């Protein structure tokens, strides 16, 4: 008789099993099982809590007050502030037809050629539908208090017109009209108190340059002839104006008189008068020093930048915080012309100030930027003081926060699972 | 009968049979003892919620626990290739030779053989118990028997040429 191998194997397995000596079995297995069960339930509760905390933490980071701070539309700053980051507008930003947007903190011409005002209290940009605005690059200037903008109005086919808009009422006022010719306005500039508006313009053929000024509270604008090549202007609260020449040199013009040369030399141009009218912050190019014209002493003052800070920057003054501290826009030639706001004093002494990175400016709009310097706070003497406000925060990549939260939740669950299997 | 007394009665009645299976699965008395006790603790933990027979639950737990333990220990074990030499037939009895050869199978192979030839499960039932496909059961079973023949040529008649 033959046997089937699998039958034999089964028998062999049973013989091996039957030969096994009895194994001791503890009598506390029930107790151990239920202890493990209670421990498992505790771990389950802990796991749920950990998951809730992890998810809740991520949700807080993503949707909490921090998110609101990043959403400019929900942020309101009492009294207004200059944004710490001033950037070009998106292409799809809607046009604002109601010009009563409120006090502005900054104004510029966008890369698309549109006039833009950033409102002071919420940091929102507004693409303004200014009457007579020409898409060609023309002049736009925001007053120091942020309440008025001035621009060249090209609504008529010929002639030169300058218009101001009260941003709180939306009311427009034509402050200068010259029906005889279309001038090219090189620059518009407000006095520190926002009363005077000055401009330098050239005729279409470029042969004639003019300095114009108007007391916007009274009207009666007037223009005086300048040597050709006038490119920039600053105007004081008393109507005095300093004009910079493209070929080098500065001209001073009292309110009712013609311009006289006060400085000959290349490298500087008119920027902004101090409130007391004594100093004029000057433009300069490819420099490591800021320059200021002292109108009382007829002297060029210098403030070299601290070592290892700014090098080879173009400097354009944006105004003064007080009679001593000027606000400059410095564009780094080596850094792709991105701009940063710098606060400094005319000279270096025991009370001088030099602070960089007060704000940053998109290079595409830097050339046309004007800001409401009156919104900058008084210095409190600390280096940590924030002079501008982070309305929308840096564009944070929150994916890492979400990823971290999910990873933390997974790690917690894996850890609990390990503990569960180890002790459960 | 309370849950506790029911569990105790189950352990008393089926403990020895479970221990035999555990010994075949592990090939080691101490490991078998640990395996049975771990599976019974699991059963006690979920006793009220075991909706199949308690024995089936405990056995399935042992099968999976044994393979799981092996995964945790395998890095410390010697590779199988070094065990491929025939086992010296120092013991004349088939039982000891089979025991020695079984210890040189992987836990998965050993578990498949135990389920097929000791528990008398079909390939489909074995696959269901282990959560693998029937094809995998057939393949592991074939490989395990081939290895047994290699390790213990004197078992050829027992294992068969084509089983």
UniProtKB/TrEMBL annotation, chain A:
Q: Give the originating organism.
A: Nocardioides zhouii
| SUPFAM superfamilies on file | Tricorn protease N-terminal domain
Keywords (alphabetical) are: Membrane, Transmembrane, Transmembrane helix
Which InterPro entries does this UniProt record tie to the protein?
6-blade_b-propeller_TolB-like, WD40
Which classification does the entry list for the species? Bacteria, Bacillati, Actinomycetota, Actinomycetes, Propionibacteriales
Chain segments annotated as transmembrane? 42-62, 398-420
Q: What is this protein called?
A: WD40 repeat domain-containing protein
Q: Where is the signal peptide?
A: none
Q: Which domain of life is it from?
A: Bacteria
From TrEMBL, chain B:
**InterPro entries attached here?**
RNA_pol_sigma-70-like, RNA_pol_sigma-70_dom, RNA_pol_sigma-E_actinobac, RNA_pol_sigma70_r2, RNA_pol_sigma70_r4, RNA_pol_sigma_r2, RNA_pol_sigma_r3/r4-like, WH-like_DNA-bd_sf
Question: Which UniProt key words apply to this protein?
Answer: DNA-binding, Sigma factor, Transcription, Transcription regulation
Q: What Pfam families does this protein map onto?
A: Sigma70_r2, Sigma70_r4
Which terms in the Gene Ontology molecular function aspect does this entry carry? DNA binding; sigma factor activity
Which GO terms are recorded in the biological process aspect for this UniProt protein?
A: DNA-templated transcription initiation
Any idea where the RNA polymerase sigma-70 region domain is? Answer: 11-74, 101-149
Q: Which family does it belong to?
A: Belongs to the sigma-70 factor family. ECF subfamily.
NCBIfam families under this entry?
SigE-fam_strep, sigma70-ECF
> Which protein, by its recorded name, is this?
SigE family RNA polymerase sigma factor
The source organism is Nocardioides zhouii
Q: What is the lineage of its organism?
A: Bacteria, Bacillati, Actinomycetota, Actinomycetes, Propionibacteriales
